[in-house]
User: Which sequence fits this backbone?
């Protein structure tokens, strides 16, 4: 069953972290084991969940990434890119 249909069937919420993940393959979203998310991947998923649940645009968040209480050493440009990807993905799956 398609995920969107499944969420709709149970009056659930679709949080499309997977589709957001594949939008930019150049970012190091996987951890060292190549399976689990890196801190940056965790941040992207958190952005999708944040926007999907609250309805607040991820692009309005600060231009810094904080994971597990620690600011990641990534550029503001990268943070803004991930916020844009999260927003576009949530918007595409909310239709």
Assistant:
């Amino acid at each position: 069953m398609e995920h969107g249909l499944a969420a709709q069937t149970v009056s659930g919420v679709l949080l499309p972290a997977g589709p957001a993940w594949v939008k930019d393959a150049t970012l190091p979203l996987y951890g060292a084991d190549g399976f689990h998310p890196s801190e940056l991947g965790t941040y992207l998923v958190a952005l999708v969940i944040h926007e999907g649940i609250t309805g607040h645009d991820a692009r309005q968040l600060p231009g810094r990434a904080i994971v597990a209480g620690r600011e990641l050493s990534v550029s503001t440009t990268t943070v803004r890119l991930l916020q844009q990807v999260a927003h576009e993905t949530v918007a595409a799956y909310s239709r």
Q: What stands out?
A: The CA atoms of residues 31 and 81 lie 19 Å apart. The mean pLDDT is 90.
